[in-house]
Amino acid sequence: MKSLMDDIIKYEPWDEKETAEKEMILEFLQNHQDAFHRTNLAGHMTVSAWVVNPEHTKVLMAYHKLYDSWAWLGGHADGCTDLVSVAVKEAREEAGLGADEVRPVCREVLSLEVLPVSGHVKKGKWVPSHLHYNVTYLLEASEEAVLKVNEEENTDVAWFAVEDVQRASKEPWFVEHIYRKLIEKMKK
Predict the structure, then answer these.
(1) Would you say 156 and 62 are in contact if contact means Cβ atoms under 8 Å apart?
(2) Which one of 51, 102, 150, 169 is most buried, counting C-beta atoms within 10 A?
(3) 19: left (phi over 0), alpha (psi -120 to 50) or beta
(4) 137 and 83 in contact (C-beta within 8 Å)?
(5) How high is the pLDDT of residue 67?
(6) Which CATH number fits domain 2-187: 3.90.79.10, 3.30.70.3270, 3.10.450.50, 3.30.1850.10?
(7) What sections of 83-146 are H helices per DSSP?
(8) Alpha helices in the chain (DSSP H)
(9) DSSP secondary structure code for residue 175 in this structure
(10) What is the pTM of this model?
(11) What is the mean pLDDT of residues 2-26?
């Protein structure tokens, strides 16, 4: 976990929102031994994968059942503190990519977020409202790779031109505060 803490400490926040969320994530990691486990009902570490093609002109997204919207890929750490490997695993699971079809562009943090999650039912069990302390990484995959829907979580997986990502999502808060930021970072 020290490596992750070091990576987050080194990370330069994008804006005031991300500065506050960086502090929240560091405090959460320092004060919760179960930060990487869903047993912490108040919140837990998650990871997102911003998957782009090698030219960085398209983004891979899934149509998530829970949110009824096109969204980035990602999931829970579930005990693993190597969040880059979790990002790759989640991209593979959610898009059906093979082990050699997706890779990290680098191991540096791309973005930090603290995301509120409303209470919901998952696999027949109530999950109370909580926070996702999220770290986002930039991954690459080939557009030629065969995509497969993960029927437990999504109904479709597709590539979107960067300029179409924000129109595809039905989640205005994500469009304004996350996807816009990630697109701007890709341009730099």
Answers:
(1) yes
(2) 51
(3) alpha
(4) yes
(5) 85
(6) 3.90.79.10
(7) 83-95
(8) 2-10, 16-31, 83-95, 165-168, 172-174, 180-187
(9) I
(10) 0.94
(11) 96
